[in-house]
Amino acid sequence: MNSTTLEAVGKRYDATLMQHARRKSWAALYGIRERMRPGISEDEAKVEAAEVFRELGTERLWHPVLIRIGANTTKTYREKSDPTVRLGENDSYFIDIGLVFDGHEGDVGDTFVTGHAPEQRACAEAARTLFHEVADAWRTQGLSGQALYAFTDERAQALGYRLNHAVKGHRVCDFPHAIHKGGDLGALDSTPSSGLWILEIQIAHPSEPFGAFYEDLLCHETGTRHAQ
Question: Is the pTM of this model over 0.90?
Answer without folding.
Answer: yes
